[in-house]
């Protein structure tokens, strides 16, 4: 899936000088979401993708051996199945099928105990109660809170900024007193949340480990929102995967777009956004061909790439360019994929049931790992996020075998030659081996992506960063990607940022793509001229030259 050279209706090759309503730069999940929503509104949409594949960081390939289907980048999608954006596209009608592992997640401690998160609330309660008998009931109360706020919270997260109406519903749901306590909880360091709420290590580590799916450590303000959100999603809907591979999600998006007349051209990189009189009017591709956009250009590329490389400094306020100098990427990533002769031989059998496994730090170890990343050091004992894909979806590899992967974060900007990568991956495998004796003997083949490789394979993963920029508070909401740019509108009229660099940020949920499409539709609507004047006045106020 996601391997075709060009995806579109038969005979849909686009000639030089073509004119469409909207050009979408990038066929990642956000670009495809944006294109679908515009096509739903009757727009003629063309998506131009630099690589030979649709999907961006949501793609599947046989990296090691024939028959072993690996998710090249991302793999588990709890936010996809709960996002009102993705749910609204009804992708199951276009071939998408979700699969689940027997258990959602296991956090393995150095002493081989494991805290196991399951979609079965009683099973999770039983696991956490082994760490402290009081924690099972505390978990029930936290999950009850999630169920109470889920719908209004998700609408708040995925609405264009500022999300006035859904945020108002959330406040009404909670009331003033509980609303303030809820806001405090989300702003806390996840270590503090865990210590306030639980007595044992199990639940605390589920929260802290999930927070580290972002680039926020246990002691960082705001890390609670990520730890709490992912654990509650895991309890509620699990960490599902598309049957057959991650590419099934983006193939469904592409198929849906084709049925509405949308087109996708792969291996066609955009090199310039064309700007005339302060307005985006089209793009130029790497072959020199031009595509005119009657209504909008939407960019599913990182913000620094859009502004510095595709638009050009001459069309942008100097203060915006200055702010971009302070744009902060999230940590880099090293990922290894394995073709295994059988399931991983875990010493603790509970771990073998989990689709996702965290290895193998206690809370202090997670803090050390985060501190080493912050100080620019390669972690001595990195936290691993490991996926057991055939355990989750048996279609991923031949019967009796296993497809698995692990990734961990490393500092940005380091040089990774072949020997350094090999030694680091050997260290990662040693961590698995000490909890699964005989693991390395099961390895039939492995495939490694260093930060440099990740960037080369998928240009949006700049320096191996997988979340489109740090998730820290100073680069979220109205500060994402830079202060005052919390909406997808840009200082160039009819140009919209549709990537994870925009609010609400990384993960596979389609939020940035949806917000960009909504802004483009608003600009082109009956009140479009007034909308355009309003946004121009806002940008002039924020970024006077």
**What name is given to the CATH topology of the largest domain?**
FAD/NAD(P)-binding domain
Overall pLDDT metric: 92
The DSSP helix count reads 18
The biggest beta sheet reads: 7 strands, mixed
Helix percent band:
25-40%
Which parts are unreliable, with pLDDT below 50 for 5 consecutive residues or more? 1-16
CATH homology superfamily name of the largest domain? FAD/NAD(P)-binding domain
Number of strands: 18
CATH architecture of the largest domain: 3-Layer(bba) Sandwich
Text of the CATH class of the largest domain: Alpha Beta
- From the N-terminal CA to the C-terminal CA, the straight-line distance is 47 Å
Relative strand content: 15-25%
* Structural class by helix and strand composition: alpha/beta
3D shape: globular
Kindly give the count of domains.
3
In angstroms, what is the radius of gyration? 23 Å
